Amino acid sequence: MINDAILNRRLTMISMLLIAVSAVLILNLLRFQFYMDPEVKAALAEGADNRLHQTVEVQPDRGLIFDRNGHLLARNSFDYRIGISPNVISNPQQVALELAPYVNMTEDELYRVLHRPDPNDPDSLSKYEMLTARVDFETGQQIIALEIPGIQIEAIPTRIYPQGNLTAQLVGFFAGADDARISRGYYGVEGYYQPLLAGQSRRVTTSTAPLIDDTQVTTQVRDGIDLVLTIDRDLQFLAQDVLNTAMEEYDAEGGTILIMNPRNGEILAMANSPSFDLGALTDPDNILLASNPAVSDIYGPGSVFKVVRVHWAAPGIYFATRASAQIPTCLPWVTPLNLGRRPNLLQVARPFVAI
Questions:
Q1: Between the CA of residue 72 and those of 77, 85, 163, 343, what are the distances in Å?
Q2: How far apart are CA 54 and CA 46, in angstroms?
Q3: Which residues have a Cβ under 8 Å from the Cβ of 16 and sit 6 or more positions away?
Q4: Closest to 226 (Cα-Cα) out of 253, 197, 252, 254
Q5: Distance CA 245, CA 256 (A)
């Protein structure tokens, strides 16, 4: 009897202790649920929102560049960054066989990549592996056509210059890191009109929940402005050809030819030699040639102004016809001038002198 009484008393004490502990836990749970610290509550809400939503920056289309006749001098294209998630690949051997030729890897190398363990969880396969930092547009389209589950393809904006090196110093180039947000135009029209050509990107938040349709979310951005130059592609080719011939004939170190409409000052051609190679942007010696000497180098007119002085001294002398030769100057103060005697004699137009 005594032992039963002691046992009952101990059970009662243990039960009361358990009830008290349970009550404390329940109160803490209720307090955590309804009277949560604002900072903790905000952090938890942000974490939940991040798991259900993602914010992406929608990039605008860069403006195109045309010559006066509508011929493209610069247009947009895409390269692609290729990655893969080995942890979702069900048949790595087949994937290695199909994908290896497009990412410059052997089947064995790609197969080993697809079996690479996760650094944070050695018992699981990697969640993401970079296969190649950049492939061209055609290769990227072929990879997309394979429809491999787990493949991750990221578009990288780039520029194509249909006229090649013919207008390289005039148009400039678009380059930078693989991230489109820090790529921009350099030199020439691409660099000078960067704000107009670039457009305005926009950040858009979309849902990652599988059952939520967010296709109605607007992703409109302000695309870049297209530019039409006064340059004539055909005249540019002729000027460059004449210049190259003269360079070889006289063994010159450099030269410039400009063709201008003397009536309105429009530049129809601007050829330089040596020229800039768009295919060698990583060559520092080549980059030194990217600047356009026709507008950036200092030119001392020297005897060019003898023609002006002679015309003022002898206004009755005919110097040239309407098919004028173009002599470049770099005098920013030269303004459009009509001498008022014979319209086909001498005209000065900024920033070139036509005789």
A1: 13, 39, 8, 34
A2: 12
A3: none
A4: 197
A5: 12
* DSSP code, position 226: P
Region class of 265: left (phi > 0), else alpha (psi between -120 and 50), else beta: left
- Phi and psi for 204 in degrees, rounded to 5? -130, 135
Q: Check: CB of residue 183 under 8 Å from CB of residue 174.
A: yes
Asked if residue 351 has a cis previous peptide bond (ω within 30° of 0), the answer is: yes
Digit-by-digit pLDDT tens for the chain (355 residues) are 556 777 777 788 888 888 888 888 888 777 766 666 677 667 666 665 555 556 667 778 899 999 999 999 999 998 899 999 898 888 889 999 999 999 999 999 999 999 888 888 878 888 888 898 889 989 999 999 998 888 888 888 899 999 999 999 999 999 876 554 578 899 999 999 999 999 887 776 665 544 445 555 556 778 899 999 999 999 999 999 999 999 999 999 999 999 999 999 999 999 999 988 998 888 989 998 999 998 888 767 777 777 766 666 655 544 444 344 443 433 333 333 333 333 332 333 333 333 3
d(CA 143, CA 216): 29
CA distance 117 to 56: 29
Query: Of all helices (H) and strands (E), which one includes residue 246?
Result: helix 233-250
Strand 72-84 vs strand 65-66: parallel, antiparallel, or unpaired? Answer: antiparallel
pTM of the full predicted structure?
0.65
- If phi > 0 it is left, if psi is from -120 to 50 it is alpha, else beta; for residue 302 that is left
